[in-house]
Design goal:
Distance between the termini: 51 Å
Strand content: 5-15%
Bound molecules: 3-thiaglutaryl-CoA, flavin-adenine dinucleotide
Structural class: alpha+beta
CATH superfamily of the largest domain: Butyryl-CoA Dehydrogenase, subunit A, domain 3
Number of helices: 10
Helix content: 40-55%
Number of strands: 9
Largest sheet: 4 strands, antiparallel
CATH architecture of the largest domain: Up-down Bundle
Order of helices and strands: HHHHHEEEEEEEHEEHHHH
CATH class of the largest domain: Mainly Alpha
Strand order of the largest sheet: 2-3-7-6
Shape: globular
Number of domains: 3
Length: about 400
């Protein structure tokens, strides 16, 4: 089988498992098993073909990957934030694109409807999104406004019972296959509001973006709005301003801080095993000091990142994880995952560049993860602003 993930074992150097509940461990083992059975055997092939395994979308709903910490009343999992994080970790052990699918559906589509939607919107959309019967996408980024969404040009004007939406969005995960899009655009007063668009609305299209060398097993596209008539009942009533989309990002960035651990663990696990099996100069390469330096640094950084995620989870559980704390964890954990992938690739030598191992796929995926949901440098500036009180963005 291409990819070594079928031999994966988790790594817990500081015994964080002792801090986890039965529910956490159960969520981990069931999603881990699902990933081993359904994702690992097919993912290299889909990534190679730059194709999205959309047949897994409903199964993700069945295993509870969409909105694990949202209330059960609307189809969420009713679990705590640590369970949510652990599920993201296990999915990203399979592939960042699979975790992306769950992040977008749960945190960027279901969450805003749950948090800012009307009762009718919640009843109409959430149960079908929770099962994966409907696929959602989240439109914030525009061709000329990525890190600075406040400059967005997408806008709508009042027209009786409807509004008329114009503009475009870029780099939207799942947009070509989405039934529902949560789109952020400015009203006539220049305030950002969220609108729920449905596939098939006249003037609404979602062309695919081709040629990605990263997240190849995830489908990405644009959103184009040409005089799209959107009923006013599709506007999210409970929020206006950029804090609407940004609070959804906090939820998704939290999941990524955990998710990156999954990719990092897979790369470390593969490197450790390979170093013990591969012999050069008459002995396993694990016996060489330079290999041990790599492995020791990898497990040290992985352990620090696990502790960061766990503590963030305990804060999130009591509603005290600040956006800046989430930024720190997203930034740190994605970078260490990328560094671990690069070191792991070296330990695998030439084999590390092939699809016999998951390393290059994780490494390429993590280049996107470093950029989306706020780039590495944007998160650094959020930390800088938090500790100094000085805003370096403006
Ligand atoms: P700023 O003036 O700082 O804030 C505007 C309002 O928002 C509030 N706020 C937040 N609320 C909750 N969570 C957060 N993380 C928040 N950050 C800010 C803030 O308190 C304020 O509220 P109020 O009541 O005072 O109005 O906004 P700014 O325009 O200066 O921007 C700040 C900046 C640059 C940090 C922000 O815009 C930013 O984070 N930029 C990065 C953009 C980004 O992350 N885009 C992601 C697009 S979605 C995506 O990538 C999905 S990938 C999906 C996948 O997994 O496949
Ligand atoms: P830019 O904002 O143009 O940044 C370019 C560079 O300039 C970066 O290095 C950045 O750090 C730096 N920079 C910018 N401003 C500053 C500053 N003030 N100080 C210092 N450096 C700065 N978006 C969505 O809305 N929904 C999605 O579902 C979604 N999915 C995505 C999927 C993929 C595969 C990708 C690649 C992106 C996705 N995005 C999505 C968009 C993603 O969030 C943006 O790419 C990201 O926010 C960065 O925006 P940008 O690409 O326009 O880069």
């Amino acid at each position: 089988m291409a990819g070594s993930s079928n031999r994966f074992t988790g790594h817990d150097y500081y015994k964080i498992d002792d801090l986890l509940s039965e529910e956490h461990l159960l969520a981990r083992s069931s999603v881990r098993e699902w990933v081993s059975q359904e994702v690992c055997p097919i993912i290299e092939d889909f990534a190679d073909r730059h194709a999205c395994p959309t047949h897994l979308f409903k199964e993700l709903g069945e295993i509870g990957a969409y909105g694990p910490s949202l209330p059960t009343e609307y189809g969420g999992g009713g679990m705590d934030e640590i369970s949510y994080g652990i599920i993201m970790q296990e999915l990203e052990r399979g592939d960042s694109g699979i975790r992306s699918m769950a992040s977008v559906q749960g945190s960027l589509v279901m969450y805003p409807i749950f948090r800012f939607g009307s009762e009718a919107q919640k009843k109409k959309y959430l149960p079908k999104l929770a099962t994966g019967e409907w696929i959602g996408c989240f439109g914030l980024t525009e061709p000329d406004h990525g890190s600075d969404p406040s400059g967005m040009l997408s806008h709508f004007r009042d027209d009786g019972d409807s509004v008329i939406l114009n503009g475009s969005k870029m780099w939207i995960t799942n947009s070509p296959v989405a039934d529902v899009a949560v789109v952020w655009a400015k009203n006539e007063a220049g305030k950002v509001q969220g609108l729920i668009l449905e596939k098939g609305m006249p003037g609404f299209s979602a062309p695919e973006i081709h040629g990605k060398w990263s997240l190849r097993a995830s489908i990405t596209g644009e959103l184009v709005f040409e005089d799209v008539r959107v009923p006013k009942e599709n506007i999210l009533p409970e929020v206006s301003g950029l804090k609407g989309p940004l609070s959804c990002l906090s939820k998704a960035r939290y999941g990524i801080a955990w998710g990156a651990l999954g990719a990092a663990m897979d790369c470390y696990d593969s490197a450790l095993r390979y170093s013990l099996e591969r012999e050069q100069f008459g002995r396993p390469i694990a016996g060489f000091q330079l290999t041990q330096k790599k492995l020791a640094e990898m497990i040290t950084e992985l352990t620090k990142a696990q502790l960061l995620a766990w503590r963030l989870g305990t804060l999130a559980n009591i509603g005290k994880a600040s956006p800046a704390q989430i930024s720190m964890a997203k930034r740190n954990n994605v970078l260490i995952a990328l560094q671990i992938a690069r070191e792991s690739r070296q330990i695998h030598g030439g084999m590390g560049i092939t699809n016999e191992y998951p390393i290059m796929r994780h490494m390429m995926n993590l280049e996107t993860v470093l950029t989306y949901e706020g780039t590495h440098d944007i998160h650094l500036l959020i930390t800088g602003m938090d500790v100094t009180g000085q805003n370096a963005f403006k």
